[in-house]
Amino acid sequence: MTGTRSRPRPSGGTERDHLPGDGAIWVMVLGDLIIFGSYFVIFMVHRAMAPQEFLAAQQHLNLTIGAVNTLVLLTSSWFVARSVVAARAGDIAAALRLTYFGGACGVVFIAIKGYEWTTKITQGYSLGNSAFDEFFNFYYMLTGVHLFHVLLGLLILGIVVRELRNPQKRRVSMVESGAVYWHMVDLLWVVIFGLLYVMR
């Protein structure tokens, strides 16, 4: 009786039981998730203490801009996921092209966020001590720390591109690691979007 067998991998395991990327990237991702999880809990506690003020401040965020940025990052994740598929299949040209597209979406995200910040600061919504201002304290802190992670993600995607372009350094695990980190960045934004822009 024959059955379906998983394709062997160089490490000696199978594709079915393979954890994408290197172990180090998962330690990094889990650490970031714990830190951001703490930020989210603190935000929720402060929101519960002043729900009306937070809701009033939230009305001054542009939901459309937040939604567009969410769509941009989700699209970038799709490109990066497809680049992993291409790299596993040995189609390096496609993997490179898709990684570039994913990174380009990240740059668009940064540009939109810069526009949004500039608009809010120009309108007078900055750091302060009132409960209304506290919402924007969280807004700038959460989106600012996330933006740093987007920049770091772009750096990691740049390393992926460098390795893909060098036949001597090509490793599917590096492409997978870059994708793991990039997907984490996108996941964090989805939560931030929900907390800051959507939750009522």
UniProtKB/TrEMBL annotation:
Spans through the membrane: 24-49, 61-80, 92-115, 136-160, 180-199
Gene Ontology BP annotations: aerobic electron transport chain
Membrane topology: Multi-pass membrane protein
Gene3D superfamilies: Cytochrome c oxidase, subunit III, four-helix bundle
UniProt main location, coarse: membrane
Species of provenance: Mycolicibacterium iranicum (Mycobacterium iranicum)
Localization in the cell: Cell membrane; Membrane
Domain Heme-copper oxidase subunit III family profile: 24-200
UniProt cross-references to InterPro entries, sorted A to Z: Cyt_c/ubiquinol_Oxase_su3, Cyt_c_oxidase-like_su3, Cyt_c_oxidase_su3-like_sf, Cyt_c_oxidase_su3_a-hlx
Family per similarity comment: Belongs to the cytochrome c oxidase subunit 3 family.
Protein name: Probable cytochrome c oxidase subunit 3
One Pfam family named in its UniProt record: COX3
Catalytically driven reaction(s): 4 Fe(II)-[cytochrome c] + O2 + 8 H(+)(in) = 4 Fe(III)-[cytochrome c] + 2 H2O + 4 H(+)(out)
Protein keywords: Membrane, Transmembrane, Transmembrane helix
Domain of life of the source: Bacteria
GO CC terms of this entry: plasma membrane
One annotated GO molecular function: cytochrome-c oxidase activity
